[in-house]
Amino acid sequence: MYNVAICEDDKFQLLELERMLKIYGDNEQITFNIDKFCSGEDIINGGFDKYDFIMLDINLGGINGIDVAKIIRKSNENVKIIFITAVEKYWPEGYNVNAFRYILKPINDTRFYIEIKNLINEINKNKIFITTNNDGDLKTISIQNIKYLEILSRKVMIHTQAGTYSSNYSLRYWNKKLYPYGFANPHSSYLVNLRYVKGLSKEKVVLISDDVIYVSQRKYKEFKEKFIKYIGEI
Q1: Any stretches that span the bilayer, and where are they (predicted)?
Q2: Which helix (DSSP H) or strand (DSSP E) does residue 98 occupy?
């Protein structure tokens, strides 16, 4: 399942985008959980951390789509943004907010489905699938949205921007799976996504979400070296 937000002040166009997305989902056996917004203010107030992608009309009444995207990017670098627009003059501004694609109005069905297919393929590159212990449901989680993992009461808890999930797999398993994506161990009970680290001392790691994770003396040097290397690569 993919969580999607559509922000469009033209109600007919809003429903049309929803319809096209559902048709694509039915054809590809993909489920979209769609939230609809009629203004930039609505989507900002509603929050956007849970979404895999957001479809934004640029010419919104009130705050425009470009400014909405700038606000989104201040707290979420990962969510994919597709701009919907009738003109091409805004394209250069889209690069400043790392827009994934532009879709021109009037929207061509075939072109729309091609862009959504490309988008889903891109999202899936950074997706992992876990089965939770509590309800057995298969959960789809973006690797980039994982803040850290910890061992808690003999379970591995995965803390993400959208919530916390429990996993049947060991932390050793997650170490191997996530190591290539910029994760490191400050402690034998923790695995941290380095992109979320804002502070490091010999005693603790502080994340941009203000979560505090303790650092073991044995792990400090190695974690610090990995963090410095990570900073140098971005």
Answers
A1: none
A2: none
Q: What is the pLDDT of residues 123-171, one digit of tens each?
A: 888 788 776 665 667 777 888 889 999 999 889 999 998 889 998 899 9
Place of tokens 């590809």: 28
Q: What is the dihedral sign for C-alpha 37, 39, 45, 47?
A: positive
CA distances for 67 relative to 56, 96, 174, angstroms: 11, 11, 37
pTM to 2 decimal places? 0.69
Q: How many CB atoms lie within 10 A of CB 142?
A: 19
The predicted structure's pLDDT at residue 234: 55
* Average pLDDT over all residues of the chain: 89
CATH of domain 127-233: 2.40.50.1020
Q: What residues contact 197, with CB distance under 8 A and at least 6 apart?
A: 205, 206, 207, 208, 227
Residue 61 DSSP SS3: coil
Answer whether residue 49 shows pLDDT above 90: no
> Quick one: pLDDT band at residue 90, thresholds 50, 70, 90?
low
Of 69, 70, 5, 76, give the one whose Cα is nearest residue 38: 5
Instruction: Specify the fold of 2-125.
Output: Rossmann fold (3.40.50)
CA distance 205 to 212: 6
Phi, psi of 103, rounded to the nearest 5 degrees:
-120, 120
